[in-house]
From TrEMBL:
The keyword Disulfide bond does not apply. It is found in: Membrane. The chain crosses the membrane at residues 37-57. This is N-acetylgalactosaminide beta-1,3-galactosyltransferase. Residues 478-490, 498-508 have a biased composition (Basic and acidic residues).
Length: 898
């Protein structure tokens, strides 16, 4: 059926879209639809507030008029004199909206738009009832029910309205309310609450994919109207719940679980602005098939049920696990995520192919799909879904998602009856069609990646040969084989691809996997690791630390590299320039007197507590032992460049390698314009960090042992850092946690070192604070760049890079190592020294408003908070950098000291 491409429609502004596209849908194709839409919008309950305050934006008069004339009773109920309120409309409106936010419409408590597609009335009613029974009515934005393949049916509409009749407590903007049956208008047909349910009829069956796309378009129009009327903040990101008619939510917790999986509130130091909430482009599915079970599909793309591995379940303590595909009973994702999927095919009619298409979009071009185990959804009654792809569908999936080689392999796996010519003809036809999205490879991951990492049941496709294993020849061969037994051995030989796979598996086993045999002549450290740290270290797999080129020709983000001062790509910064040619430290007498005479808390911490062990450092340098090499990475933007000289004059040259990631290259400062996806803004640091680490990995990995990153207000004590990194403890940890390395190791356990915070106090969600920065060894950097960046959140748009780094490393079993010293003193500090000197924990840290108390893990107060051998401080601004340096390195003249 010919359909207009969706994303080309204009959904801006007030005008209803042109639905006159030849689709025979009386409801949508008549001008009446426009009026219906207006009425519908006008009746939506929050809009009565608009009418109430008379807040009219140009072009909205018609809406308001219709509201007042249909909703007499609400206006009467709410305020006795609407006219009085009108005078300060705008002002009051704002405060009403604030109130609405408190109730839970803010960016971190978005409302949900439910889209239910079905072909059976009873199924739709059952699903809608389950939504109402399990969702806070205030958080339902709209419920859009599509009755596919049915004529308009007013009886059915009336029936649905009874589901949502306002009989549960809810808010009218500023007033809590409940309509008891019989006591007010609720019993009447036109009560103010029945319009959250919107019904669409498709007299000609459109199918699942197209019905969903239609409904989402409707939701987007509605959203725009709410935004322009001032009833929805642009920061509130609607959640979209797609259900199949007949599926039923079973748990009230579904929205809370879903929200926290899709939207992460700001975790970062001192940032309370909730509009900066991190938005994840993943989708959430629910427990439908039994504990630990999930929908997947085989090499012919037919659905199968598989079990999540114990590892996958354990990663989140059984809370959730990834699923390769959706069964479509219910799936939740952000409306924006859905709208940005690049390759949705509206021609897929049946639930399975539509869900398969959605699944591939989500995995390859967004952040994937997770099942939330606690939330149960009962699946719709089985209605004989088509479970195999027809050849046209198969050809389309191949043409859209696979490269040429994989298309051939998929064909071998999919069909035993077709000829190669049939297949190539079909695929070519799909490719040439104007509605087939092209060039997904720049935006999305490869199908091969998906087959390897997400859906192992597709391994059969990867193992197939290409055209050289010509299909018809193979069939002929098989026929011959059955005749001549001797040929059998030849055909049973595994194809070359399999052989290579076997070889790869023969990697040397990780050292700590065979402790006893290998352990005889291995040296243990003088003190074992603390049990907690041993546990942390043993969760991570040691990895081979040989450099593997992950840049892929530097053609795609995050390996695009850097530009020089003139904008030429391919710039490679000389990271040793600063160490070779450090600028002189400039502190005049007056400054020095100021730095050293003040007896503030910064002085107390630096002078009375912190020690830089220069003796040890000198001894080590003399001994000729190979020192660990540290690369320091600072990030800023051009407006932060004036802060850089303070670092260059103080601790910067102590790093073996030094670079400042920026958006402007200036060799005199060591700043480098790193190319990355998305805009140069605070809210996009994740993408910048992905590019910076990739650049460091691509260019400097082999020369350095450790890599530290921090902002331009970071102060490092490099001698103490190196002392710690070269300690028996850290060497043992990087070697699996039991034995010291002997220098012959080819593998290393990834280590993530820094200041640990428990996100919202949750000890299962620990990350290293970005303030003091974090230090990684080779194994961690390699894993981060070559695995984590590729597989997790490749396009997320967020500032919380520190939680993101912890999160993606955690997916690979790497947890932040506890870097406290043996007396419980912290080494990495999120604030200035003086802050820690004077800080006192509140009585009940977990219930206090003090985020720092809540996030901190067993910290000490006062001087003892900081390890004498501290390595990092944060929020060191302006000349404080030089002051801390002078105090730490004994530069103060004696007469100024006690
Ligand atoms: C609203 O009020 C007008 C005038 O007071 C009246 O004619 C109309 O019937 C009322 N409508 C409803 C739905 O109560
Ligand atoms: C309103 O909804 C409740 C719960 O769904 C139901 O028990 C009640 O009968 C409904 N009332 C009316 C007037 O439809
Ligand atoms: C998963 O966790 C459970 C309980 O914590 C544990 O018993 C089990 O061994 C773990 N499985 C794996 C594969 O780590
Ligand atoms: C899918 O993969 C799992 C695990 O690799 C395996 O146990 C199962 O048998 C496979 N199912 C099919 C139908 O290939
Ligand atoms: C099958 O066997 C016949 C004779 O036994 C031979 O001519 C033919 O080439 C064989 N076909 C293939 C594909 O090996
Ligand atoms: C760097 O980014 C900032 C913040 O977005 C911007 O104001 C500035 O113009 C950018 N500088 C360059 C050289 O692009």
């Amino acid at each position: 059926m010919p359909r207009k491409p969706y994303n080309k429609r204009d959904v801006n502004g007030v005008a209803a879209p042109n639905y006159n596209n030849g689709v025979s849908n009386p409801m949508m194709s008549t001008p009446e639809f426009k009026v219906r839409l207006f009425l519908f919008v006008a009746c939506l309950w929050p809009l009565w507030v608009l009418a109430l305050f008379g807040a009219s934006a140009p072009g909205h008069n018609q809406q308001i008029a219709s509201t007042s004339s249909t909703d007499n009773d609400t206006s009467k109920n709410a305020v006795s004199s609407p006219a009085a309120a009108m005078s300060n409309a705008r002002f009051n409106l704002r405060s009403v909206l604030d109130r609405v936010d408190v109730m839970g419409y803010g960016p971190t408590h978005p409302r949900v738009a439910v889209v239910i597609v079905g072909e059976d009335k009873e199924d739709l009613i059952a699903s809608i009832k389950s939504v109402y029974a399990n969702t806070d009515i205030n958080r339902i934005f709209v419920v859009c029910a599509v009755l596919d393949g049915h004529q308009e049916d007013l009886e059915f509409v009336r029936e649905l309205r009874n589901v949502d009749n306002g009989s549960v407590p809810h808010w009218h903007g500023i007033r809590a309310d409940v309509h008891l049956p019989g006591t007010n208008q609720a019993a009447q047909e036109d009560d103010p609450h029945s319009k959250k349910i919107h019904v669409m009829f498709n007299p000609t069956r459109l199918g699942v994919a197209a019905s969903r796309l239609d409904s989402v378009e409707f939701v987007q129009i509605l959203e725009k109207k709410h935004i322009s009327a001032g009833f929805k903040s642009v920061d509130e990101d609607l959640i979209l719940l797609l259900m199949q008619g007949g599926a039923q939510l079973k748990s009230h917790s579904w929205l809370a679980e879903t929200t926290s999986a899709l939207i992460v509130p700001p975790p970062i130091l001192g940032i309370k602005d909730e509009s900066l909430a991190m938005k994840v482009a993943n989708a959430v599915s629910f427990h439908t098939e039994g504990f630990g079970k999930r929908t997947s599909f085989d090499e012919k793309f037919s659905p199968i049920i598989t079990e999540a591995t114990a590892d996958e379940i354990n990663l989140s303590n059984g809370h959730s696990f990834p699923t390769p595909a959706l069964n479509g009973a219910a799936v939740a994702l952000r409306l924006d995520t859905f709208a940005n999927l690049p390759a949705q095919d509206p021609s897929l009619m049946d639930p399975w192919t539509a869900n398969l298409d959605l699944s591939l979009n989500l995995w390859l071009c967004a952040d994937g799909i997770d099942i939330v185990e606690e939330v149960e959804v009962s699946p719709p009654m089985a209605e004989n879904p088509t479970t195999t792809l027809n050849p046209d569908q198969a050809a389309r999936f191949a043409a859209v998602w696979m490269d040429e080689m994989l298309q051939q392999k998929f064909f071998q796996a999919y069909s035993s009856t077709w000829t190669r010519l049939d297949w190539e003809t079909k695929v070519t036809k799909v490719k040439q069609s104007a509605t087939t999205p092209s060039d997904l490879s720049r935006r999305c991951r490869s199908f091969e990646w998906y087959a390897k990492e997400v859906n192992p049941n597709l391994s059969k496709i990867l193992e197939m040969g290409g055209w050289e294993h010509d299909h018809e020849k193979e069939i002929a061969e098989k026929q011959n084989v059955s005749k001549e037994g001797e040929k059998e051995t030849q055909t049973l030989k595994p194809p070359p691809l399999l052989e290579r796979k076997e070889e790869e598996k023969k990697d040397p086993p990780p050292i700590n996997a065979i402790p006893d045999l290998a352990g005889h002549d291995k040296k243990k450290p003088s003190k074992p690791l603390r049990p907690e740290n041993l546990n942390i270290v043993s969760q991570a797999k040691p990895i081979n630390i040989e450099f593997e080129d992950a840049s892929d020709g530097h053609e795609a983000h995050p390996h695009l590299g850097a530009t020089d001062e003139n904008g030429h790509v391919g710039y490679i910064h000389d990271e040793t320039a600063l160490r070779k040619n450090p600028p002189t430290l400039k502190i005049d007498e007056e400054q020095m007197a100021k730095f050293c005479k003040s007896r503030d808390d910064n002085y107390k911490m630096m002078h009375n507590r912190i020690v830089v062990d220069m003796e040890y450092d000198k001894k080590m340098e003399k001994s000729g032992v190979k020192r660990d090499k540290i690369f320091c990475l600072v990030y800023t933007i051009d407006s932060g460049h004036p802060k850089i000289p303070n670092i260059l004059e103080t601790w910067g040259p102590k790093c073996d390698g030094f670079m400042v990631g920026s958006n402007k290259t200036d060799p005199s400062l060591g700043t480098v314009n790193i190319l990355h996806e998305g805009p140069e803004e605070y809210n996009n640091i994740w993408q910048k960090v992905r590019s910076m680490w990739s650049y460091i990995y691509d260019n400097y990995y082999e020369k350095y042992d450790w890599f530290h990153i921090g902002g331009d207000d970071l102060f490092l004590l490099i001698e103490n850092l190196r002392l710690y990194l070269e300690s028996e403890e850290i060497k043992t940890a990087a070697n699996g946690g039991i034995y010291l390395p002997d220098g012959t190791e080819t593998t290393q356990t990834p280590l993530l070192l820094g200041r640990r915070f428990a996100y919202m106090g949750d000890l299962n969600d620990i990350f290293d604070s970005g303030g003091s920065g974090y230090t990684m060894n080779k194994a961690a950097l390699k894993l981060l760049v070559t695995e984590c960046f590729v597989n997790y959140f490749p396009h997320a748009h967020t500032f919380s890079e520190d939680t993101m780094v912890a999160r993606v490393l955690r997916k690979m079993g790497v947890l932040p190592y506890d870097t406290k010293d043996d007396d419980g003193g912290e080494r990495y500090m999120p604030f200035m020294p003086g802050h820690h000197w004077s800080y006192h924990l509140p009585k009940d840290p977990m219930n206090s408003k003090d985020w720092y108390a809540k996030y901190s893990i067993n910290i000490k107060e006062g001087a003892e908070h900081c390890s004498p051998k501290s390595v990092a401080f944060h929020y060191v601004k302006g000349e404080n950098m030089k002051r801390l340096f002078a105090l730490a390195y004994g530069l103060c003249p004696k007469e100024y000291l006690d």
